[in-house]
Structure formats: structure tokens, C-alpha cells
Amino acid sequence: xxxxxxxxxxxxxxxxxxxxxxxxxxxxxxxxxxxxxxxxxxxxxxxxxxxxxxxxxxx
Length: 59
What we know:
Elements: H1 8-11, E1 19-20, H2 34-41, E2 44-45, H3 48-53
Antiparallel strand pairs: 1-2
């Protein structure tokens, strides 16, 4: 049986420990205000509904 490939789109947002990053913090941050850049650095936990939805996706 072949290995299951990692879904790269999900892997860029969700970490191994269930922490999820915020969208809009990858590039073009110079034009965004400081408060939103600072808030984007903080990760949050993956919600139970998202965990159910992403259960079959490898990340």
C-alpha cells in the first residue's frame, strides 16, 4: 500500500499539535497595521468542528 501524501495546503496552516495559524500573515505585512501583524503571530487551538472536518486529511 502506498504512503499517504501530506496535504500541503493544510500543513501550512495547521501544526502537528493542533495549533492553527492566522491567514493573511505570510507576506505583504508592511502595509498592514502593527496590531494585526502582532495578533497574527499568536496561534490558536484547532476547534473541535475543524478537527472533525480535517480528521481524514494528513497534515
